[in-house]
Amino acid sequence: MGWLVGTSVAAAGEGAMVTVAHWNTAANLANRLRAGSWVMLGGATWRNRLMAGVAQVGYKYGDSLTAQVRACELVSPITKEGWILGSSKHIIGQRIYQP
Q1: Among 20, 37, 69, 72, which residue is least crowded by beta carbons within 10 Å?
Q2: What's the 3-state SS for the chain?
Q3: Is residue 66 domain-resident?
């Protein structure tokens, strides 16, 4: 099922490191993630860019940041978006970074 969510997260435990991608304007990236940043599981791929919906808001493919974060720092979108919308975002690999 790793193909569906962008990366295999089955083995991710509390301290496991997970690769995430984040898009924003180049000026706002500042080479780091901020609390509350929406991220995609996996790297900055075309698939993740499409699933993140960042093209619709005008972010370029190159305006991305890939980082390693602890799995326990990623929160499901269900907490902010509700069960229906949040679970669909969770399935495609969207998470919220909360260090």
Answers
A1: 72
A2: CHHHHCCCCCCCCCCCEEEEEEECCHHHHCCCCCCCCEEEECCCCHHHHHHHCCHHHCCCCCCEEEEEEEHHHEECCHHHHCHHHHHHHHHHCEEEECC
A3: yes
